[in-house]
Amino acid sequence: MRAYKKINITFGGFVSRELIANEFTKATRTQIGPRLTPEVDTNITFQRHPVYSNMFMAQLNFRSSYESKVMRMIHKWGGKIAPLREDLHQRGHEETDNTTTGKEHNYECVDELISHRSF
Amino acid sequence: MSFQSVHDLLTPPGVVRKQKFWDWFSGDSLKSYWTFANESGSGGSGAMQDAVNGGYQITTDTSSNDYSGISFSNIANHYSATASSFIAVANRDSTLSRYWAGLMETKNGVGDYYICDNVSANTFYILKTSDGGTNTDTNTSVAVDTTVRKSQGISNNSSIALWLDDVLEAINTANLPTTALQPNYVVMTNTTAAKTGSIRYFEAYNT
Description:
With about 120 residues, chain A is an alpha+beta fold.
């Protein structure tokens, strides 16, 4: 069974959103159908840093088997684990509540949350 | 000065132009390459707006989740799932409604697609990708609203990115489309009243 983990990382300085996006999602040589598998199987949301304009945050929902690659990437680009935004879904899907309201809800497929620790 | 062909003005030397499409939604009627259709509900309609920057406006039928849209009517899927891009400048006009703009395999949203989803039931704009009907949503950090925004989706062989107003917002590597796609703009009502949405620019091209 596939398991997914979620993490929010702060990057800053000379690192751009595009660079991080490319690092995580660039194609490998493994082909499945018409597509090549990505470096890391992850969906990413980029956010502005709440305080510093030259920094940004990348929240990832990644396949757990890629955890060591994610950690290596954080180390390589000077990332810092930040508080999670649980309201931001990276691997969401919609379900309709057919029992009562008929309202649509967006749920996220995630098994483990990796968060920071404030010292 | 020698005369440049339009092909050469828009294409670097030595490059053979790939399929490209754009529409400004100007003039007194929808261009013939688009087809308007009511996908759910029969009372929806579409019309050019008589207003500054009005573009083309779609009005849905009046039952909840009724939707209408414009597409190439499943006849011309010119755009690659793995090497293409779309740009849409659109909005929805009020709350309790939704619009989808992007590239889809079928005009009713079944099958493969990658789109920008603005639905009032969700807090944020969404990058939505689907492979054979199994879809994955990734939120952007931009809250849903009724503002006219430029959304751009870029598909390559391992991921799909969504840019909103020229800022990279979201990336998907899961449930990516694999079949050829067509342009699509759909407006949906999420309540028991007709809702409207407007589009003023659409561009799609293979990369």
